[in-house]
Specification:
alpha/beta, 5-stranded parallel sheet, globular, disordered C terminus
């Protein structure tokens, strides 16, 4: 069997052809490794872990085994297509990890820049900081108060990574730590707010607007707090399909502080460009949930940054002196460890919350405990262990009836409030329990109920999700719109950039960019959203998409109740499957046992390497 007989996709075949033009003598094992690197990126991996895949059969349906590791390494070492870190070559072999050159450069330079940023200690008026922390976090009674500790670290460092589950107060923390920063440096600080998606940016801006009104600070500080957020692509000045952006190390962003929300959704390439574009002495504050699904593109950067977190005795003593909070001593295993703070107390889920307890058991990998909890009579949890597609569609129709009644009135605010009261989430797009099948079957039932002809695409109450950015209209991938009747005819309304309840923008259906129906959406698309009630439907057959992170992310979109339609076997598989992406960022940041943090390298000033291949 030759390479031509293997089940490569069009992109992989084009990449293979380009490498054969560069080196017509390239061996089969080298070309195969390159194609597998390309496939790995499509799965979200940053690199190909040779030791893990050598000797295995990558395509179960094809009788083809990969070479053993020693022979594979020898072939790669001898190839002109493969270089070592710092070389100019299409592929880079870094230890046992094989990269496409661009991604090895992204990962290496991101690690270097993060270490350089973390090593810079800004000047801090500690007496003023102590007063700010005591006043701004006086409402908290938890001990230790991780919100206060996170704020202290963010003010004292140029890099802060704050992770917490839903309801742990990440927005509350960041508003108050920004107020503390402004009390240090004055209202002239240039502060930027950003998020990966337009929806997440709007929610962040709205939350900060609401939170800053009640801050115990003077009016000048409140006025200096930003209340507008941008997507990361807009912030950096993305240029269509080009990997280059307008802001980079040679043209940095004009910011003193940058806060990035929903950072778990940021892939390696985007994070590398973002950190490169930030002035070296600017503060970077990353907010996210390390247990949520990682980015759709390659890399799980935020989760890797959170690995090895901890405070040694020196750092713990400093924090206790500043905050009056006793800090558990846990020596970090990462050179960024002390920059990472994990918020643990959920203000959304009470101690007896079924959703909160379910989230804890899922993250602990406790499949038996998860199933036992779902069998209990908890008011905020429901489980259908014998799901049928027809019954599921009927249940979804029932769940959306309050929304359809609100949509009939044609008032956007009430329609969006009702629509966000219930949402169906799935693991995948295809199949009877996937987004496409559920939306198609549900819309047929809704059209019959509303008396709409089956072939009619648009009707009052149709919900859609944009899947293509349209900068001219201000509509972005993931934005949800509701079709309502108006005196001018059918219009599709979207919440304004200022967030829920702050006005709506209406468009004629024909003007919309590419879109899909959105009564059911994937868990991936739901990230950054909250709904009063969630129905999570998992596929009947085993699927590589069923992971602990997906299950956790899906159930924590709910504020009041979660209803799960899934076979017990699929639930157990989801809890027991921990998605791991092949990457080397955590290893580049790790401390060896007994090693002290090394002096970081100087901050790179150019991105020439990123444009090689």
């Amino acid at each position: 069997m030759t390479l031509a007989d293997l089940p490569f996709g069009p992109l992989e075949r084009a990449f293979l052809a380009s490498l054969q033009r560069l080196d017509p003598q390239a061996g089969e094992s080298v070309l195969l490794a390159a194609v597998l690197c390309c496939e790995a990126l499509g799965r979200g991996d940053v690199c190909l872990p040779l030791a893990r895949v050598a000797g295995t059969r990558p395509w179960p349906e094809v009788d083809y085994d990969l070479p053993p590791l020693p022979a594979w390494r020898d072939a790669l070492d001898a190839s002109a297509l493969v270089g070592r870190p710092g070389d100019y070559a299409p592929l880079i072999l870094d230890g046992e990890r094989l990269y496409l050159a661009r991604y090895q450069a992204y990962e290496t330079q991101l690690a270097e820049r993060l270490l350089a940023r973390a090593a810079l200690a800004p000047t801090v008026d500690e007496a003023r900081l102590q007063d700010s922390l005591a006043r701004l976090f006086d409402f908290n009674r938890q001990r230790p108060d991780w919100q206060r500790l996170a704020a202290a670290q963010a003010v004292r460092r140029n890099l802060a990574v704050i992770s917490g589950g839903p309801g742990t107060g990440k927005t509350t923390t960041v508003v108050r730590l920004l107020a503390a920063l402004l009390e240090q440096g004055g209202p002239s600080l240039a502060i930027g707010l950003a998020a990966p998606t337009g929806k997440a940016a709007a929610r962040m801006a709205e939350a900060i607007r609401q939170a800053k009104a009640g801050l115990p600070v003077d009016d000048a500080i409140k006025a200096a707090l930003p209340d507008e957020a941008r997507t990361l692509h807009r912030l950096l000045g993305s240029r269509g399909d080009s990997p280059r952006v307008r802001h980079d190390a040679d043209n940095p962003l004009p910011l003193d502080v940058l806060v990035v929300d929903e950072a778990s959704m940021v892939d390696l390439a985007l994070m590398a460009k973002l950190v490169a574009a930030l002035p070296p002495r600017a503060r970077l504050i990353l907010l996210g949930d390390k247990d949520q699904l990682a980015a759709v593109e390659a890399g799980a950067v935020f989760a890797e940054l959170c690995e090895g977190r901890g405070f040694d005795a020196r750092a713990a003593a400093e924090l206790e002196r500043l905050t009056g909070q006793a800090v558990p001593v846990e020596p970090p295993r990462s050179r960024l460890g002390e920059a990472v703070v994990l918020l643990t107390h959920s203000h959304r889920f009470a101690g007896d919350s079924g959703i909160g307890e379910l989230a804890r058991r899922i993250n602990a990998g406790d499949a038996a405990g998860t199933l036992a909890l779902l069998r209990e009579a908890r008011s905020d949890l429901a489980w259908n262990p014998e799901p049928a597609a027809s019954a599921l569609v009927e249940r979804l129709e029932q769940g959306y009836l309050p929304y359809l009644q609100a949509a009939r009135a044609g008032e956007p605010t009430a329609a969006f409030e009702a629509f966000n009261g219930f949402r169906a989430l799935t693991a995948q797009r295809e199949g009877a329990f996937g987004v496409n099948g559920l939306n198609e079957a549900l819309e047929m039932r809704l059209k019959r109920r509303l008396g709409v002809p089956a072939r009619e695409r648009w009707y009052p109450g149709r919900a859609v999700m944009v899947r293509q950015n349209d900068y001219a209209l201000g509509l972005f991938n993931g934005d949800v719109g509701l079709c309502l009747q108006t005196p001018q005819g059918l219009r599709v309304f979207f919440e304004s950039d200022e967030g829920a309840g702050q006005g709506h923008r209406g468009f004629a259906p024909a003007r919309l960019p590419s879109h899909d129906s959105a009564f059911a959406m994937t868990v991936h698309k739901s990230q950054g959203s909250e709904f009063a009630e969630v129905l999570l439907a998992l596929p009947e057959q085993p699927s590589p998409l069923l992971t602990r992170a997906l299950f956790y992310t899906g159930i924590t979109r709910a504020k009041r109740k979660v209803e799960i339609w899934a076979l017990p076997a699929r639930l157990a598989e989801a809890v027991e499957t921990r998605a791991e992406r092949a990457a080397g960022l955590a290893a580049r940041l790790a401390l060896e046992p007994g090693q002290l943090p090394a002096s970081p390298p100087p901050v790179p000033t150019r991105d020439d390497q990123l444009s090689l291949f």
